[in-house]
Amino acid sequence: MPFATEINPVTGALDDTAADLLVLPVQAADEGPAAVEGVEEGGLSRVLPAPLTDLFAHYSLTGKAGESVQFPVARDQGLARLALLGVGSGSPDDLRKAGAALSRAARGRERVAFAWPAALAGEAAATAFAEGALLASYTFTLKTAEPEAAQRPAPAIDVVGDAPADALARGAVLARATALARDLINTPSREKDPAWMAERARGVAAEAGLGIRVWDEKDLENEGFGAILAVGQGSARPPRLVQVSYTPQDPDAPHVVLVGKGITFDTGGLSLKPNENMALMKTDMSGSAVVLAVLSALFAVSAPVRVTGLLALAENAFSGDATRIGDVLTTYSGTTVEVLNSDAEGRLVLADALAYAVDRLEPDTLVDVATLTGAAKLALGTGTAALYSNDDALAERITEAGKAAGEPLWRMPLTEEYVPTTKSRVADLANIGTRKEFGPAGATDAALFLREFTGGLPWAHLDIAGPGRSTKESGILSRGGTAFATRTLLRWLAES
């Protein structure tokens, strides 16, 4: 796994550890910052340069989550550093922020010890703290040189005191799944084609005890996956469809099908993207990476539902064989689609996978995940994903899971008046909006298009185009793919 850091619950007192960075939590309160009740600096009090209240005032601390200062202290074991770390109200969101800030502040240290604020933070906060600390330590690099020592994540963070070990371990599971998805997303497309993704899925399935089936291009043609084939036909590297299956102890449990968009590189096809947009397109398979990562962790979170993941994989290239504008293709369901923009390819591969799920898998619920439209990013920015659903209860449960994960979702309307924009003059549907009087409702057009392939089943569509990529290091994020929605879906499935 890509984490250089481990989270270890440790009993005892903070001053008993051999850490070279000691961390005391600071609570935000109406009357000002305060040491968390029950957290004793113990033997550290003799090496503090001043009483804690004076230090709070000197450094203008508020206790806000993630706020921190460090200063040297002399211990019997030698010189060390002591940090005061804001944990806010002790909520899961605040502990996630504090964990991320701690991980970044600990770079270059050999071992870190954090006094767990048991009186302030519960199990959900411990899970969130582990997520924050580990995800902030995630790195992906193909550089040949080792990072500078000051930039290396600390090998270990000891959580000292009465921290709930199971909750910390659960956070590590969620973070590892997210890191798996980030690794897949960040891999350059020179290496990462549909066949490569299928082989990675085989490896994940073998390691996690999952069932797997892979369709190659001949299988796709024989079984009528016309949309996936049409998107991939311009590339010398043919498409794939991958099915990964998880069965809980109860084989009669409700069945959820997750569908992930897997465009391993997106040039836009003949509707060629400008270079500044294309530079990000190795991440256009984020949906499939998220789905595979979720499947990898279902046993670890004891998910009680049956889950099938479908990875719809293709490379959208331009060539003499590429799908032309105005071509009409026949999808798996038999529905015909006129291609009016070859850069609206994600909804095409999802359509085939959704239709197959309805026809063959007998799901109770469908959820798809995709970096689908720039319109969703334009509407909601890079911090929030768009959620469309035809089922209020399903939308509410996923939204609540997103809140718990710190991955905000905003439900968007499936505006029925816009349905005519999905229609084509020469086919059943068009792959972009055809009616200008509805305005540039690109994200809703795409969702309404996908709904045509869901068979009326309870369905949710997560358009993660905005938060699916990060251009900077901030909080739990590093540059590149974020794997947004991995922890949301795992929480939702574990509690279903």
Give the gist of this structure:
Helix content is 31%, strand content 22%.
Say how many strands there are: 20
Proportion of residues in β-strands = 15-25%
* Structural class based on helices, strands and sheet pairing: alpha/beta
Question: What would you report as the Rg, rounded to the nearest angstrom?
Answer: 24 Å
> Mean of residue pLDDT?
95
Shape: elongated
Biggest sheet, spatial arrangement of strands: 8-9-11-10-14-18-15-16
How far apart, in Å, are the first and last alpha carbons?
28 Å
Q: How is the main sheet built?
A: 8 strands, mixed
Uncertain residue segments: none
Helical amount: 25-40%
Question: How many DSSP H or I helices?
Answer: 14
Layout of SSEs?
Layout: E1 6-10, E2 21-27, E3 34-35, H1 52-58, E4 68-75, E5 78-88, H2 92-105, E6 112-115, H3 123-135, E7 156-160, H4 165-186, H5 194-208, E8 211-215, H6 217-222, H7 226-232, E9 240-246, E10 255-266, H8 275-278, H9 286-296, E11 306-316, E12 328-330, E13 336-338, H10 346-361, E14 365-370, H11 374-380, E15 385-389, H12 392-405, E16 409-411, E17 429-430, H13 442-451, E18 459-463, E19 469-470, E20 480-481, H14 486-494
Helix pairs in contact: 2-3, 3-4, 4-9, 5-9, 7-10, 9-14, 10-13, 12-14
Can you tag this structure with a few keywords?
alpha/beta, about 20% strand, 8-stranded mixed β-sheet, about 500 residues, 7-stranded mixed β-sheet, single chain
